[in-house]
Amino acid sequence: MPYSRNLVNRCHEADSSFGFNPISKNLIMLVTQYKKSILLICCIPVVYLLFFFNLGQYETLTSHESYVAVPAREMLHTGNWIVPEFGKLPRLQKPPLAYWATSFSYWLFSDISEWTTRFPSAVSGILLVGLMGLWG
Question: Residues 44, 47, 48, 49: is their CA dihedral positive or negative?
Answer without folding.
Answer: positive
